Batch of 2 targets.
Target 1
Amino acid sequence: MDLSHILYFIDLTGTFVFAVSGVTVASRYNVDVFGASVIGFVTALGGGTVRDVLIGATPVNWILNDEWVLAATVGIIIGLFVTPVISQWKRTMFIFDTIGIGLFTILGLEKTLQLGLSPLIALMMGTVSAVFGGVVRDVLVNRVPLIFRKEVYATACIAGGLVYLFIGLFTENKLWPLLVSIGVVITIRRLAVMRNWSLPMPKSSRP
Amino acid sequence: MDLSHILYFIDLTGTFVFAVSGVTVASRYNVDVFGASVIGFVTALGGGTVRDVLIGATPVNWILNDEWVLAATVGIIIGLFVTPVISQWKRTMFIFDTIGIGLFTILGLEKTLQLGLSPLIALMMGTVSAVFGGVVRDVLVNRVPLIFRKEVYATACIAGGLVYLFIGLFTENKLWPLLVSIGVVITIRRLAVMRNWSLPMPKSSRP
Amino acid sequence: MDLSHILYFIDLTGTFVFAVSGVTVASRYNVDVFGASVIGFVTALGGGTVRDVLIGATPVNWILNDEWVLAATVGIIIGLFVTPVISQWKRTMFIFDTIGIGLFTILGLEKTLQLGLSPLIALMMGTVSAVFGGVVRDVLVNRVPLIFRKEVYATACIAGGLVYLFIGLFTENKLWPLLVSIGVVITIRRLAVMRNWSLPMPKSSRP
C-alpha cells in the first residue's frame, strides 16, 4: 500500500466523518431527514467545492468521482441512524476529524500549487478546503459560523499549511512534509481543545 | 409546436412562477422593492445557477440567454404590484410551480447526463436545479430553508428523476419518460400537500 | 500616470476600504479575529468573486493577482487594530467607499461586455461586483442583507451603470463615461444619505 493509496483512504474517511458530524449538528436544528442529509453532504463536500469553484477546477471533484458521494452518503446514513445510540464514538470521531482537516488542508494546498497558483493562494485554498464545509453548514442552519466564534480550528490548518510550505523549500519529498504538517494540525487542535484556547476578539467588539 | 418548443415554454413559465413566489416570500421579511426583486431573481434562477457552477457549465445559462432574465423580471413585477391584489392566483401558481419543479428536475438531469456525467450525479443536479433557488432565497431572508423542515418537495423531485432514469433504460424516446416523470412529481407533491405528509425528523433531534 | 494606473489604484483602494468596513461590521457580531478577518476578506473580494464565477471567468481575479489579497489584508489589519481608535476616519471611509462602489460597478460592467455578453447582463454583473461582497458578509453574520432593507446603494450603482452604457453609445472614449457615471453614483448615494431616502416596501409587506 503506497502513499497515494493511504491519502485516498484518509481523504474518503475524512469525507465520511465530516458527513456524520454535519448530520449530527443539523439534527439539533429542527430539520427533517432530507434537510439533515443535505447539510451532512454540504459539510463533507462543501470545502472542496468552494475551493474548486474559486480556482476554476470545475466540474468540482466529487462530480467526477462517485466515491466521494458514496463516502458522504454512508456518513449521512450512520449520522441519521447509528450515531444517536453510540455516544462512545465521540473520541474516535474527533481523531478522524482532526486528521481529516489536516489532510484536506494539504491536499487543497497541493492541488492549488499544481495549477501554478502562488503559495499564498495555495495556503488560503488549503484552509478553505478544510473549513468552508462547516461554514456553509452553519449558514444553512442559520447561525454565525462556529469557526468565526470559537475553536482554534482554522488557525491549526493555516499553521499546518505554513509548515508544509516551509519544509517543501528544502526537500522534493512529499511524504515527510505531509506527515509533519498533519502532526502540527493535530497537536495545535488537541492542545486548543484541552486547554480551552481561543483567539482574541477584535478590539472594536461591543463589550 | 414540437417538443422543444413546449419545454422552452414551460421552462420560462416555471422561471416566471418561481420569481413571483420569491417576491411574495421576500415581502414578508421587511425588505424594500430592490431586496424583494433580488430575492425573486435568485429564487427563479438560483437552482440552475448552482447546478451550472458545480458542473462547470459557465457562463451560467441565464447569462447567455436574456429570455430567462426577462421571464424573471416579468415575474418580479407581477409579484411586486399584481399578486397582492389577486389572491385567487394561488391555485394556478401552485399548479405551475409543481409543473415547474418537475420540468426543472428533468432538464437539469438531462443537461448533466449530456456532459457525460454519471446518472447518480445527474439525479442530484436535477434536484439541485429544482430546489436550490428556494434554498438560497431562504438563506437571504435569514431562515432555515423551508425544504429542510417541511414539505415533501425535494423528495418528489428525486422520485421523478429516478422514474425518468428508469424508463430511459428501456426507450430512446425522451417525451414519454418526461411526461411520466413530471406526472410523478405532480402526484407526489399534490398528495403530500392534501394529506399533510412530511418526512421524519432525525432520531437524534432534540425532543 | 495614465488612466489604467488610476483605475488600478482606485480598485485596490476600494478593496482596502471594503475590507476595513467588513471587519468593522463583523466586530459587532461576537466573532473572533479570525472570523472578522474572513468576513473582511469576503466583503472586499466577494462581489468580484460572485461575478467571475457567474460569467465563467475563473480562476477568479484575486487568485491570479496577489495585490488584491494584499490590499484586503492591509484593510483587515487596519480594521482590527487601528479603526477602533480613530473614529474621524468615518468621513474619509464613506468617500472612498462611494468611489469604490462606483468604480467596481463600471469595472465589472466593462469586464462582462468584453467577454461578449449583453449590456443587460453587464449592468447586472457591474451591480453584483459592487454590492454582493456586502450581501455575503451579511449572510455570514446572520442578518438579512442591509442593501435589501435600506440605503439607496444598489440603485446608485444601477443608475451609474445605465449612464455609462448610455454615454458609451455616443463615444469610443472610456474616460469621460467613467468619470460621469462614478459622479452619478456618488451624487445619488450622498443625496440618499443626506436626505434619508429609501426605496418603497413591496405592496404585499406585512403592516
Target 2
Amino acid sequence: MVQHAACMTYGANGDFSERQGVDLASVLPLDSRRVTWLDIHGMTEPSALEPFSTSLGIHPLTLEDILNTEQRPKMEDFGDYVFIDLNMLWYDSEQGVEAQQVSFILGSRYVISFQRGDVDVFAGVRERLRSGKGRLRKMGADYLAYALVDAVVDNYFLVLEKLGEEIEDIEEALIANPGRETLRGIHHLKRELLHLRKSVWPLREAVGALDRGESALIQPGTRAYLRDVYDHTIQVIDALETYRDMVSGMLDIYLSSISNRMNEVMKVLTIISTVFIPLTFLAGVYGMNFRFMPELSWRWGYPALLGIMLTVAAVMLAFFRRKKWL
Amino acid sequence: MVQHAACMTYGANGDFSERQGVDLASVLPLDSRRVTWLDIHGMTEPSALEPFSTSLGIHPLTLEDILNTEQRPKMEDFGDYVFIDLNMLWYDSEQGVEAQQVSFILGSRYVISFQRGDVDVFAGVRERLRSGKGRLRKMGADYLAYALVDAVVDNYFLVLEKLGEEIEDIEEALIANPGRETLRGIHHLKRELLHLRKSVWPLREAVGALDRGESALIQPGTRAYLRDVYDHTIQVIDALETYRDMVSGMLDIYLSSISNRMNEVMKVLTIISTVFIPLTFLAGVYGMNFRFMPELSWRWGYPALLGIMLTVAAVMLAFFRRKKWL
Amino acid sequence: MVQHAACMTYGANGDFSERQGVDLASVLPLDSRRVTWLDIHGMTEPSALEPFSTSLGIHPLTLEDILNTEQRPKMEDFGDYVFIDLNMLWYDSEQGVEAQQVSFILGSRYVISFQRGDVDVFAGVRERLRSGKGRLRKMGADYLAYALVDAVVDNYFLVLEKLGEEIEDIEEALIANPGRETLRGIHHLKRELLHLRKSVWPLREAVGALDRGESALIQPGTRAYLRDVYDHTIQVIDALETYRDMVSGMLDIYLSSISNRMNEVMKVLTIISTVFIPLTFLAGVYGMNFRFMPELSWRWGYPALLGIMLTVAAVMLAFFRRKKWL
Amino acid sequence: MVQHAACMTYGANGDFSERQGVDLASVLPLDSRRVTWLDIHGMTEPSALEPFSTSLGIHPLTLEDILNTEQRPKMEDFGDYVFIDLNMLWYDSEQGVEAQQVSFILGSRYVISFQRGDVDVFAGVRERLRSGKGRLRKMGADYLAYALVDAVVDNYFLVLEKLGEEIEDIEEALIANPGRETLRGIHHLKRELLHLRKSVWPLREAVGALDRGESALIQPGTRAYLRDVYDHTIQVIDALETYRDMVSGMLDIYLSSISNRMNEVMKVLTIISTVFIPLTFLAGVYGMNFRFMPELSWRWGYPALLGIMLTVAAVMLAFFRRKKWL
Amino acid sequence: MVQHAACMTYGANGDFSERQGVDLASVLPLDSRRVTWLDIHGMTEPSALEPFSTSLGIHPLTLEDILNTEQRPKMEDFGDYVFIDLNMLWYDSEQGVEAQQVSFILGSRYVISFQRGDVDVFAGVRERLRSGKGRLRKMGADYLAYALVDAVVDNYFLVLEKLGEEIEDIEEALIANPGRETLRGIHHLKRELLHLRKSVWPLREAVGALDRGESALIQPGTRAYLRDVYDHTIQVIDALETYRDMVSGMLDIYLSSISNRMNEVMKVLTIISTVFIPLTFLAGVYGMNFRFMPELSWRWGYPALLGIMLTVAAVMLAFFRRKKWL
C-alpha cells in the first residue's frame, strides 16, 4: 500500500506544479515536455505500480527490487530507464546507525523515488524546486536524480561525524578510566563501522557505475556532478577505513592498558607478601620452644629483633625501588 | 546407476507433458520445437549418459565432471551447450551446513539437471511449470536454467539466516555465561563460514561468467534475470564476510572476557592473602618466646593487638578499595 | 649424465614402438609423421642435450633451466616449442611433502620429458600408450603433454589428502591431550603448507598460461582438457587456502587451551593457599604468649577454635563455588 | 575573503613582471601570450572568484572544491583546464604532522594556486621565477604547475625524515627504558602514519592521473617531469609502508618486553616466597607445644636447626639457579 | 667527482679494446659501429656528465637520478636510451644486508654503468668480455646491459642464501635455548627482510618493464634473456615471502615457548608453596597455647603429627602428579 505520494512537475519555461497525496494512477500519462518527480512513501504492494510498469516499461525485476527491503545498493541500466537503489543512513542517538532503503527510477523525463520509512532527506531538494532558485528547475530529470542521490550521500557525512564523536568519547574514556563499558563501546563501534562499510562499498560502486555508465539518459553536463558525488563516496570510504584502523588501535590500547593495570596490582600485592614472608619467618624462629636458645633470655633480644626486622623490610623495599619494581 | 529421472516438456503453444521415472534412452531424440527438462537423481555410472553424449554432443570432460562429486562451482561454455556446476547448500539442524553438488547442461532447447542426494530444491520450479503460471512456460530453456540456478542460490539465504541465528545464540551466551562451549561454538561457526566461503566465491564467478558470457544460448531478455542472480550471490558474499568479521570479533571478546575473569579471580585471591600476611606476622611476633617482652604481660595487650590487627586489615582494604582494586 | 632414457613413438595409423635405454643421439632425426615421446631420467650434463639443441632449435636458456633444479614452475612459449617446468610433489610418510622438478619440451610432433629423481608418476600414461586404449594414441603431441601434466597435477590431490589426514590427527590430539608435540605438529604442518603454496601458485600460472596461450602447437580440441587441468590447480589452491585457515585456527585453539589449562592450575593452587592463610592466622593468634588471653584457659577453647576454622574454610569454599571459581 | 594575492607573468621573450597584493578582478583579462601565475592566499568566499568563473570557464563544482577545505587529493580534467587538489604536509615539532589544502587550476596559459594557511612552500619556485635561472621561465604553464606540485611533494620527504627521527627516538627508548611514554609514542606515531597514508595514496593517484592523462594542456616534454614527481610519490608510499611495518614491529617488541619484565619481577618475588615458606614451616614445627619433642631439649638442637634451614635455602637456590630460573 | 672510469669497446669483427682510468670527455664521440661500455665509479658531480648529456641526448632528470643515491629501482624509456636504476645488495657478515645503487644507461651502441661504492659485481662480465668466450662480444649493447643486470640480480641469491643460514641458526637456537638474543635475532631478520622487500618489488617491476617494454633498443633475441632475469626476480620474491612467513612463525614459537617456560616456573613455585601451606597451618595449630589440648600431652603426638604431615604432602604431590600439573 502506498502511504503517501507527491507529484511535482516543471518545465523549461519555468512553470512548476505540485500535488500532495496523489493517486498513482492519476499521474499517467506523464507529460513528456516537462520533468515529473513522483515521490512515493511506504510502498508495500506490487499491484500499485503495475500501471507504471506497462506505461513506462519498467521491468518486473525492478518492481521486485523496489519491494524487497534488503537490497544491496546498486545501479542498473535498463536502457529506457536507470534503476538506482541506495541505503539512506542516519544516526539515531539511541539506536546508533540506522538504515533505510531508497530507490530511484530515472527515465528520460521523470524520476520516481521510493522511500520506505519516515525519515525524509529530500526536504532540501523539494524546497529548491519550489523556490526555483539554483539550477535545479532549469535542468533535466538526470540532474534531479543527481540532486536526490547527493542528498542521500551527504547524509553519510553526518553519520560519520557522529561516529567521529563517539570515537572521541571512547578515546577520552580510554585515557581517563578504561572499563568494561569502554570495551563494549569499542565493540559496538566496530560493529557499526562493519555495517556502514557493508553499505558504503556498494554505494561507491553504484555511483561510480552511474558516472562512468554509457546511459544516454545522463547528459554530459550532469556527469561532472556525478563525479563529484562519486568523490564524496570515496571520502566516506577513506574516513571509514581510517576509523576502522583507529578503532582497532583503540582495542589494542584498551587490552594492553587493562593487562598493564592488572599486572601492576599483582606486582604490588606480591611485593607486600614478599616483604612480610621473611619477617614472619624470623618471628617463627623465635617462637620455637628449644630449651637452649640463648637469644631468648638476652635483655635486649626482643627490641634487637624488631630492629633487625625493620632493617630487613627497609632493605627489601629499597632493593625493589632501585630495581624500579615499585 | 540412475535412481530416478523425470522428464517435462513444454512448448510455445502452452502444452505441457510430464513423465516420472523415465528411462534415459527413451527421451531421445529430443523434440527441437519444445523445451525439455530432464531431471536426473543419483547418477553414478558414466555409461548411462552415453547416448546423450553422442546425440547432444556432450564432451567427455563434462560427463566426468558430472560424476565427480567434489567439483568446484563453475560454468563452462562448450558452444553447443553450457555446463553449470553448483553446490547446493542447506542447513541441517544437527550437522550444520551440508553441501550437495548440482549440475546443469543447458542446450538450445533442453536443460538436463543432475542431483546427487535426496534434498530437492526444484519443487517450486516444478510446481510453476505444472501450473503454467508465471512466465516460465512462455520462455525458453535459458530461462528454465535461470529458474533452477535461482532456486539453488535462494537456498543460500536460508543457510545464512540459520547461521545468523547461530551467531546470535553465541553472542547471547557470550554476554550471559561464556565457557568452553562458547569457544567450541565460535570455532565451529568459523569453520562453517570457511566452508561456505569456499563454495560461494566460485559460485559468484560461475554465475558472473554466465551473465557476462557471450553464449548464444542465453537470450538478451534472460540476462537481466541472470544479473539479478549475480546480485544475490554478491549479497551472500557480503553477508558472509560480515559474519566472518563478527565471528572473529566474538573470538576476541571471548578471549578477553575469559582472561578478564581469570584476572579478577586471581586478584581477589591475592588480596585475601595480602591482607592476612601482615596479621599473621603480628601474631608471630607475639608468639615469640623472648623472656623480656613487656607487651606480653600488659593487662590489655591481647585486646589491643586484636584492635591493631583489625585496624591494619581495615586500612588495607580501604586502600585497595580506593585504588579500585576491589 | 643421463641415467636412463626411453623413447616411444606412435602414429595415426595405430602403430607403436618403444625402446628402453636409448642413446639420446640415436633418436635423431625425429620422424615428423609420428609422435615421439622421449622420457629422460637423471640429466646432469648440458652436453648430452646439445644435439637436440641444434636439431630441434632448443634455446640455450631452456637447457639451462632443465639442468637447474631449483626452478619455479613456469611455461614459456618459444614459438617452435613450449617449455614447461613443474614441481612434482609426493608425500613421504617420514619426510613429509617432497618435491622433484619435472620439465617438458613440447614440439609440434614430440614431447621430451625430464625427471630428476626416482619417483615416477608417468607409469599410467605409459601404460595407456602401450595398451592403445583411450584417445591417447589417436591424438597429437599436445594431448600427450596434457596427459603428462595432468599426471603431475593429479599427484597433488594425493598430497592434499595426506595433509588432510595429518590435520585430522592433530585436531584429535588438540581435543584429547594438547601438548608440545601438538604445537610442533601444527608448526610443521604450517611450514609444509607454506612450501606447497610456493609451488602451487606458479603451477596455476603456468597451466593457465598454457590454456590461454596463443601457441599454435596446442590444438583447439586439447584446450578443453587444459582448462580441466587448470580447474584442478584452482581446486588444489582452494583446498590449500582452506587448510591454511584451519591450521591457523588450530594454533589459536592450542594457545588458548594451553593458557586456559595453566590458568586453571594456578587458580586451584591459589585457592588452596587462600583457604589456609586465614586459618594459619587464627592458629598464630592463639600461639601468642600474652599473659592475659582468657580464651586459652577456657575448657572448650581448643575444640571451639577448630570448629571456627572448619567453618571459615567451608564458608570460603562455598563462596568460591558460588562464584564458579572452583 | 582573499587575504593576499600575488600575480606574476612572464613570456617567451624573457620579460617578467610581479605584482603583490593585487585585486583579483584587476588581473583579467589574462594576456594569452604570456604565462600568468596568480597565487591566492586565504580564500573564504565564492563570490571573489566569480569573475574568473565566467572569464576562464571554471566549473561551479571546482569553485566549491576550492572553498571546501576537507577535500581528498585529486586531479580533474575539465578540458579547458585541469583542477588539482593536494594536501600540503609539514611537521610541527609540537603538533606533529599538520596538513593544509593547496589547489591549482592549470589553464592553457595560466596557473592559479590557492593556499589556505600561513605555511608557504612556493618560495623556491617564486625565487627561480624572479631570478630567471633554470628552465622555469622558458617553459609554459604546465611546467609551472609541475614545479608547484613538485614543491608540495618534496615537502613530504621532510615530513618522512622527521617521522624517521621520531621512530629512531622511540627505538632507543625501547631498548633503554620502555615505559608508558614509549607506548604512547608508538600509538601517536601509528596514528600519524595513518593520517599521512590517508593523504598520500590519493596524492599518488592524482599525480599518476596527471602523468597518464590525455590532457592537451600538458606538453610531451613536461610528462617526463610529471613521471618523476610520480616516482617521488611512490617513494613516499614505500617509505610509509616500511614505517608502518616498523612501528607495528615496535609495538610487538614493546609488549613482549613489558610482559617479559613483569614476568621476571613476579618470578623473583615468587622465588623469595618459595625459599622462605619451607623454612617458616620448620620454625613452626619447633614452635609446637607437644610435651614429648626430644629435639627441643637437645643441647645443639637450635643451632642444628638453623644449619638445616641454611642448607635447605642454599639447596633450593642452587636448584633454581641450575634450572636457570634465577 | 669521478673516482675511476674504465672504457671497453668491441665490434662485430671480434676486436676488443680496454682502457682503465679514462677521462670521461676523452671517450666522446662514441664509435657507432662498435659497442662501448663505460664503467664509472664514484660519481658525485653533475658537471662531469654534461658532455654526455649533450652528445648522447641524456635528459637532465636522468642525470639527477644518477646522482641521487636514494632512488627506488626503476626503468625509464626515453626513446633514445633506456635508464635503469637498481639496488645492488650484498651480505656483510657484520652489518647484515647492505645496499648500493647501480645505474645503467643503455643506448643503441653503448652502455654506461654507474657504481657508487667499492663493491664490484661486474668482474665476471668484464672477464667474459676480455676472454671473448661466450656470446657476449658477439651481441649488441642490449645483451651487455642484460649481462650487467643479471650480475646484479644473481647477487640477490647470495644474500638470500646468507639470510637462509641466519634463519637456520635462529631456528636451532629456538629449539636449544631461546633467550633475549634469539628475540633480537628474529627482529633483526624481520627488519632485513623488510628492507630487502623494499628493493626487490620495484626491481621486479623494473626488469618486467624492460622485458615487456616496447623499446626498439632491445632486440627480440635478447628478450628471452630478460624474461629469464625476470623469472629470477620472481624467485627472489617467492623466497623472500616464504622467509617472511617463516620468521613470523618463529616469532610466534618464541613468544609461546617463553610464555610456556615462565608458566612452568611459576607453576612449580606455586606448587611448592601450596604443599607447605597446609603443613605450616598444622604446625601453627599445635603451637597454640590452649590449656586444654589433649594431643599435646600424648606420648606419640609429635611423631604422629609428623606422619600426618608427610602423608598430607605425599597425597598433594600425588594429586598434582595425577592431574599432570607436575
